[in-house]
Amino acid sequence: MERKWSVLPAFAGVWLGIMSCYPGGVTSSEQLDLVITSHDDTVTFSRFSTYVVLDSVVHIDLEDNANDSLLSRDNDALILARVAANMEAMGYLEEMDPLNNTPDVVLLVGALAVTKSAYASYDWWPWYGWGYPPGWGCCGPGYGWGYPWQPVQTVSYAVGTLVITMMDPSRPSLGFDTAPVLWVAGINGVLAGSTSSIGTRLATSIDQAFDQSPYLSPLVATPTTPN
Amino acid sequence: MKTRALLAIPIALLLSDGAQAQDWYWGLSYGVATPTSDTKDFTEGTSWRNWGIDVLAVVRPNTSVGVSFGLNAFNDVTTEVSSIDGVEIQGTQFRYINSFPMMVTIREYLGMPGDIRPFLGFGVGTQLVKQRVDVGQWRISDNTWHVALAPEVGVVLPFGSEAKWFVSGKYNYAARASDRQYSYFGFNIGVAWQTDGF
Q1: Are A25 and B134 a contacting pair, CB within 8 Å?
Q2: How far is CA B64 from the centre of its chain?
Q3: Minimal C-alpha gap between B2 and chain A (Å)
Q4: CA B127 remoteness from chain centre
């Protein structure tokens, strides 16, 4: 048997194997949504009962866009209502006269957006699909798996982050511009699709942020160190 | 130290006087694998992407030694909440484990050459494991090297004068390193053909 013919099938096997290393991957904007929560574990949330959600979503424009084109206010009312609904569902009561009766916790909602760029190329190999985002490939950050004849395009996309912060107004400030935070949720995703579809994703993610934070409920005795 | 001792056995056999006129075989195999233990916790479910290459020399009528290379690719998609350092993270996680075992192997065959021959095998060597999670717009990945063992049981089926089919079950165990341990059980089917060496 010729030596070269005995080696080639083996290398063909290796090639086939390596090509199938990373099947699947992102197929929709929803799959890029991320919900991150964290809390001060020295706080016993069961001692709280009333809340207020500030009446505006603070838009933070990191790119100094004069027209604030990346962020729409179309979903602001939905966001604030959803946060309040989740607080009610957890057992909190909204303080209707916060000027005279200090609520136990105050929730601030902020939003920011940035533009990101990525190289995209369409592979003929069926299970790779669109390369996304930078570094999404075999060869490390900044390099996607590619072939010389593939069309390569640069795509820009907007990424939005919603930040929900829960604070205790009775606790002293830690310093200028710094206040103690009891709980924070970050909701991050690609701003793609219609206003209503983004609104649906925001609502789902806000619900998720509270679902994965059961310790927030004033009805649950949390096994944490009293403050 | 034990690993070196285990490695020395097949190497000594390969270099022994009886190995001067041995038959060489290339083997190419495909398999399915089921993760176990920590590997199952990370990527649950059967993997259908497993490939192996064996080069072996029949140094005695009932003994072969050689080297084995493999690729075992596991993946999973989950939306479970992960907790890292007091931070809860939820999103669609695309999880991957790509394992590359590289071993020195020894097999002991029952029966006579030319017959259907059951065999017991044992491999020892190293395993590169590339673990990756894509979640949101972030990627967490690392590569770890492990000392690896792979007991194997199978059967060789004659197929013409220079080729043989083989089927086997192999348990791959990659010892804990960098707080990671991997293991999986694979069922493989392959073909081996006689060659004039490397």
Answers
A1: yes
A2: 17
A3: 30
A4: 8
ipTM of the complex: 0.73
The answer to whether residue B91 neighbours chain A at the CB level (below 8 Å) is: yes
Give Cα A169 distance to the centre of its chain.
26
Write the CA distances from A114 to A65, A69, A156, A206, integer angstroms. 10, 11, 10, 20
CATH architecture of structural domain B2-195: Beta Barrel (2.40)
**CA nearest A32 in B: which residue?**
B136
CATH code for the domain defined by A25-216: 3.30.160.670
∠ at Cα A134 (A151, A125), nearest 5°?
45
**B139 contacts on A by Cβ (under 8 Å):** 135-136
Q: How far is A80 from chain B (nearest CA, A)?
A: 21
Interatomic CA distance for residues B180 and B92, integer angstroms: 23
Asked whether the beta carbons of residue B75 and residue A208 sit closer than 8 angstroms, the reply is no
Please list the pLDDT of chain B residue by residue as tens digits (198 residues). Answer: 565 666 666 666 666 655 455 688 889 999 999 999 999 999 998 999 999 999 999 898 899 999 999 999 999 999 999 998 889 999 999 999 999 999 999 999 999 888 899 999 999 999 999 999 999 988 999 999 999 999 999 999 988 777 889 999 999 999 999 889 999 999 999 999 887 644
Which runs of E-coded beta strand occur in chain B? 23-35, 47-60, 63-78, 81-84, 87-91, 93-109, 117-135, 138-159, 163-177, 180-195
CB contact under 8 A, A22 and B96: yes
- Any chain A CB within 8 A of the CB of B128? no
pTM assigned to the model: 0.77
For A185, name the nearest residue in chain B, comparing CA atoms only: B88
User: Cα distance from B132 to chain A (closest Cα, Å)?
Assistant: 10
How many Å lie between the alpha carbon of A37 and the closest alpha carbon of chain B? 5
CA proximity to B37, closest of B140, B172, B168: B172
Residues of B within 8 A of A35 (CB-CB) are: 89-91
How far from each other are the two terminal CA atoms of chain B, in whole angstroms? 29
> Roughly how many angstroms between the first and final C-alpha of chain A, as a whole number?
79
